[in-house]
Amino acid sequence: MKLVKAVMLVGLMAVGSAMAGEYASLEYYDEHNRTTKADNIKEALVVGTKVGSTDYSLKMENSQAEFGNGSISQGLELRVKQSFGPMYLGGRLGERVTSTTHFSHYAVDLGIKVPMVSTSYLDIGGRYRNAFDTSNEYQTTRAHVAVGYGLTKQDTVAVRWSRSWGDDEKDSWRLQYTRSF
Questions:
Q1: HSE (CB half, 13 Å, CA atoms) of 55?
Q2: What is the C-alpha to C-alpha distance for residues 105 and 123, in angstroms, rounded to an integer?
Q3: How far is it, in rounded angstroms, from Cα 130 to Cα 95?
Q4: How far, in Å, CA of 128 to CA of 83, rounded?
Q5: DSSP line for 101-165
Q6: C or N: which end of the chain has fewer Cβ atoms within 10 Å?
Q7: Does residue 23 have a pLDDT over 70?
Q8: Per-residue CA distances from 106 to 16, 111, 159 (Å)
Q9: Side-chain half-sphere of 131: how many Cα atoms within 13 Å?
Q10: What is Dmax (Cα atoms) for the chain?
Q11: How many CB atoms lie within 10 A of CB 51?
C-alpha cells in the first residue's frame, strides 16, 4: 500500500507539472486477445512534461474485457522516459485494478524514434512488464511499431500496432492524439 501512495503522490506532482505546460494525450486501443478471441477496448489519458531529454508522465486507463460485455479494469502508471538521441529507455510503476483484484507492477521500455519526412516519425520498440507479486500473471513482452504525424506545431496524431506475448497474448492497434501546450 505504501507503493500505491508513493505512486499517487509522484503522479499528482506530474499532473501539476503537466497542467502548467507541456502535453496531454488521448489514446484509444482496439485489442484482439489471441488466446480467448475476445475483442477488447481501452482508452487512456496521459499528461506529462518534458525536461530536457527526460519525459515524465502519468497515464490513467480504462479497459473492458470484451466490447459491450465483460468486466471493466482500470490502471494508473507513473512513467519516466530518457532519450539518448533517437533511442529511448523508460521505466514505469503502476497499479492495476480489476473486479477481482488489484496489484502493483513495473515495466521497462526500450526503443528508437526517428524522423521520416518533415513532420512525421517512426517509433519501433519493446516493453517488458510484470507484477511485483508474480502470482498475478501479468508478465508480458510487447513489440510495437508506430507512425506519427504533426498536424501543427502543437498537435500530433499517431497510429501504433503492437503484439504482446506471455500472460497477455494480444494484438493491438492504438490511435493517439497529443496536444502540446
A1: 21
A2: 24
A3: 11
A4: 18
A5: -EEEEEEEEEEEEEE-STTEEEEEEEEEEEESSGGG---EEEEEEEEEEESSSSEEEEEEEEEEE
A6: N
A7: yes
A8: 23, 17, 24
A9: 17
A10: 47
A11: 9
Which residues make Cβ contacts (< 8 Å) with residue 106, sequence separation at least 6?
91, 92, 93, 94, 129, 130, 132
Distance (Å, rounded) from C-alpha 128 to C-alpha 130? 7
The beta-carbon contacts of 83-92 under 8 Å, at least 24 apart in sequence, are: 83/53, 83/54, 83/55, 83/113, 84/53, 86/112, 86/113, 86/114, 87/111, 87/112, 88/112, 88/113, 88/125, 90/55, 92/129
What count of residues does the chain have?
Answer: 181
Cβ proximity of 157 and 176 under 8 Å: yes
**What is the grid cell recorded at 179?**
496536444
Phi, psi of 68 (to 5 degrees): 75, 0
Q: What is the pLDDT of residues 138-150, one digit of tens each?
A: 999 999 999 999 9
pLDDT tens figures, 85-115: 999 999 999 999 988 889 999 999 999 999 9
Please state, in angstroms and rounded to a whole number, the distance separating the CA atoms of residues 50 and 181.
11
Calpha distance 86→66 (Å, rounded): 36
Is residue 71 packed enough to be buried (19+ CB in 10 Å), middle (13-18) or exposed (0-12)?
exposed
Question: CA 79, 84, 88 angle in degrees (round to 5)?
Answer: 40
Gap between the Cα atoms of 58 and 93, Å rounded: 10
